[in-house]
Amino acid sequence: MYSTEADPESKFSSVLEIMRKVPFLAVDGQENLTMKGSSSYRILINGKPSGMVDNDPKSFLRSLPASSIQSIEVYTTPPAKYDAEGLGGVINIVTTKRVGEGYKGNVNLNGAYPNGGPGAGLSFTATHKKFGVELFGGSNLYYNPSFDGSTYRSTTGAVPSTLNVTENTQRNGHGRYIGTQFSYDIDSLQLLTAQLNFNGSLNKSKYGRFSQLLLEDETQQFRQQTDSKGNGNGFDGGLNYQLGFKKDKARLLTVSYRYMQYKTRSNVENTFYDTINYALPDFNQINNTAFIEQTGQVDYVQNIKKVKMEAGIKAIFRENNSHFNTLEFDPVLEQFIADGDRQNEFENKQSILSAYNTYSFALKTWSFKFGARLEQTYTDIDFSSTQTTIKNNYFNLVPSIVINKNNKNGSYFNIGYNQRLKRPGINRLNPFVDRSDPNFIESGNPDLQPSLMHSFDLGYGINKKQSVNIGLTYAFADNLDLKTSRYDSVSRITYTTYENSGKIDALMLNANFNLAITKSLRTVVNGSVSHFWIESAVDVRDIKTQRTLYNASVSNTYTFKKIG
User: Three-state SS for 406?
Assistant: First the structure.
C-alpha cells in the first residue's frame, strides 16, 4: 500500500503522477500505466469498479488530485474476493476518509508537454451529523505529437515480393468526469451509501499511410489518408447497505448493487490517392456501440476465534451491441453507398456467477491468507452480419495463497501464488473481416476460450526512513489468445486472426527505492525488467521468440526549511 497522505507531492500532483512512485506500477512517456509490465489489470475505487476508470482510465487518473485520495493499494496476488479478470492484478484507489463535522476541498491544475496537455481536477468532502457527501470531477485536453511507424514484409517462392509500409499518426482529444458519493448513518451499526458518476470523451486522429508492394515485374502502391472522430458518454450508479453487529465488531454484512452504461459513436473517413495498379474506392466507416452492465453482490466477514473468514457471492450481467456500417464511394453516382459485405452487427450477452471464500490468520510474525473463487460464465453472442452465433459456457476455480513475514526491524518477506483469468474480448471473437488495410486483413475467432495465467510472486522490502521494495514474479500460460498470421502467395495478402495456441513464460523483476538523501531531499527510483518467452503460430508454424522490456523513473522532492 502506498500512502498518498504521507507524500508531500500529493498536494500538487495528480494520481497518475503519484503512480510513478508506487511499487510494481510504471507510467511511460505516453502516460500508459502498466502493472508488473502488463497492461491487463483492474482499477477499482474503494474496492468497486467504476465506469469513470473503465472507459477512460488515463483521463481520470490524470485529472484526479492525489490530495483527494488516501492510498493506492496494489495487489500482485489479489485475494479471492476480487474478480479473476486482469492478468496483472488489481489496483485499488482508496479515497480520503470522511472528515469530522465540516468540509474539505482540493483543486488540482496540471499540464504536460509535448505529450499531454492542460487539465484540472477538484474534490470536495463534507459531513453534517449523519450525512456525508463526496464530490470529485475533472477535465483535460491532450495532444499526442505525430509519430511514425513502419512495416516491412519480404516473401520468397515462385512470386517473391517486398512490401514497405510507412505510417504517420497524430491524435488529440479531451476527457471529462464528475462523481458523487452520499452516505447516511442510519444508526451506529447501519450505513447506507450511494454513488453516481458521469464521464465522457472526444477523440480525433489523423492517420497517413504509404504502401508499396514490389514484385519482379510490377509495382503496386497507394497513399491512404484516414480521418477519425469519436465520442463516448457514460454513467454508473451504485447503492450499498452495510450492517455491523454489536457483539462482534469484526462481523460485517454488505449488500451492493451497481448499474453502468456507456455509449460510443465513431466516424472514420478513408481517402486513397497516388495509386498505381490499385483500384481502391474511398470509403467511410460508422460505428455505434452500447454497453450495459449490472452487478449485485453480498459480502460477509466474521472472525472465528483467531481466523478471519470472508465469503461472498456476486452476479454480473453484461450486454454489448454494435452497429458498424461501411459506405463505399460510387464514382458513377458520385456518392457513398452502403456496402452490405462490410457491415458488422452483433449483440453480446454475458453472465458471470461467482462465489468466494477466504481465511486469514497470524502466528507471531507470520501471517497467512488463502482462498478460492468459483466463477461460472455464460456467453450468448449473435453476430447477425455473418450469421454466426456463440453459446459458450465455462467454469473456473481460481485459488490464491499469500504468506507474509513481518520482522521487528521493519522489513518483510512474502510469497504468493494465484491464477488470473482473461476472457476473450468481443473484438477477438468477432468473425467480421476487417479490410481497411488491403495488405493485412484481420478477423476474429468465435471459438476462442478463456486464458488462464499462473503467477508465483516473491517479495522483500523494508519500510523505515529508507524504503526498499523488491518483487520477483514468474508467470506462465499455455492457451493465450494470441494473433496468428498466414500469408497467401496468390493474393499477396497477410491474413490475421486469433487462436488459443499462444504460450508465454515471463520473469519479471520490480524494484522501488524511496530514499532520504538529506533531511530536505528525498529521491524515489522505480523500475522493472521483464523477460518474455513467447510461442505463437505464423504461417501454420510455431515461432518462438524472446523479448526483454525495461523501464525506470526517478522523482526528487525537496522540502524547503521555514524562514523565520
Answer: strand
Return the DSSP state at 436.
S
Cα dihedral 530/532/538/541 (nearest 10): 170
Question: In whole angstroms, how large is the CA radius of gyration of the chain?
Answer: 26
- Residue 366 parent element (H or E): strand 366-383
C-beta atoms surrounding 151 within 10 Å = 15
CB of 359 closer than 8 Å to CB of 309: yes
| Burial classification of residue 435, based on how many CB atoms lie within 10 Å of its CB (0-12 exposed, 13-18 middle, 19 or more buried) | middle
User: For residues 532-553, b (16+ Cβ closer than 10 Å) or e, as one string?
Assistant: bebbbbeeeeeeeeeeeeeeee
Nearest to 109 by CA among 125, 122, 96, 95: 122
By DSSP bridging, strand 440-443 and strand 493-516 are parallel
Name the nearest CA neighbour of 422 among 353, 358, 383, 479. Answer: 479
Instruction: Tell me phi and psi for residue 7, to 5 degrees.
Output: -100, 115
- Cβ-based neighbours of 368, under 8 Å, separated by 6 or more: 360, 361, 362, 402, 403, 404
> Using the 8-state DSSP alphabet, how is residue 20 labeled?
T
CA angle at 87 for the pair 380 and 97, rounded to the nearest 5°: 100
Cα separation, 481 vs 425, whole angstroms: 10
Q: Residue written as cell 487518473?
A: 61
Q: Name the residue among 359, 377, 375, 351 with its Cα closest to residue 311.
A: 359
- DSSP three-state, residue 284: strand
Please count the CA atoms within 13 angstroms of the CA of 430 that sit on its side-chain side: 20
pLDDT in tens, the chain (564 residues): 777 777 777 666 778 888 888 888 887 766 778 887 777 788 888 877 777 777 777 777 877 777 777 888 888 888 888 888 876 778 888 876 655 677 888 777 777 777 777 878 788 888 888 898 988 888 888 888 888 899 998 888 777 889 999 999 988 888 888 888 899 999 889 999 999 989 888 989 998 999 999 988 888 899 999 999 999 899 999 999 999 998 888 899 999 999 999 998 989 999 999 999 888 889 898 888 899 999 999 999 999 988 999 999 999 999 988 888 889 888 888 889 988 777 878 888 999 999 999 999 998 899 999 999 999 999 898 888 777 788 888 899 999 999 999 988 888 999 999 888 888 877 788 887 777 777 888 888 888 888 888 999 999 998 877 889 899 999 998 888 888 888 887 778 888 888 888 888 999 998 988 888 888 888 888 888 989 998 887 766 778 889 898 888 887 777 777 655
pTM of the predicted structure, to 2 decimals: 0.83
CA atoms of 220 and 384, how far apart (whole Å): 35
Helix-then-strand count for the chain, H and E:
4, 27
Q: Which of 480, 498, 357, 487 is nearest to 432 (CA)?
A: 498
**Domains of the chain as residue ranges with CATH:** 2-558 (2.40.170)
Do 260 and 219 meet the contact criterion of CB atoms below 8 Å apart? Answer: no
Taking residue 328's Cβ as centre, other Cβ atoms within 10 Å add up to 16
CA–CA gap between residue 528 and residue 175 (Å, rounded): 30
